[in-house]
Amino acid sequence: MEDTVSSSASATPHGALLDELLPLRRCHQDAQMRLLAFASEEYTNGSVGQDPTVGVCWDADRLNLWRVGIRPDPRLFSKEAARSEERIARARDMQQEDFAWAQLYRAFGLG
Fold first, then answer.
1. Does residue 39 contact residue 54 with C-beta atoms inside 8 Å?
2. Residues 65, 35 share a domain
3. Collapsing DSSP states into helix, strand and coil, what is residue 86?
4. N or C terminus of the chain with fewer C-beta within 10 Å?
5. Mean pLDDT, 10 residues at a time, over the chain (111 residues)?
6. To 10 degrees, what angle do helices 52-63 and 85-94 make?
7. Are 78 and 32 part of one and the same domain?
8. How many CB atoms are located within 10 Å of the residue 46 CB?
9. How many angstroms separate the CA atoms of 111 and 107, rounded?
């Protein structure tokens, strides 16, 4: 698993980040890391994730397509919550906001 996931994941930009994360978590979460590897490798193929973790990863990325001028296609969201016009509009509006890391940490109760 170690060499297979690491070398195949490196082929994508998200995979390079995954390569950095794998050694940190490999000791006890191989199944979760394989799932993360799958999500990072396959998210551009236009699929809808049946697994909740994969689906949320893909939906979050697709909601952020506004950053490159692309309107997200609701048919390509895995979770119903992401398909709402309100959620898609909010994602568009968030592209105009400037968030500092400290502000985000506080908003999520992390700092």
1. yes
2. no
3. helix
4. C
5. 42 58 58 81 77 85 90 90 92 86 82 69
6. 60
7. no
8. 11
9. 8
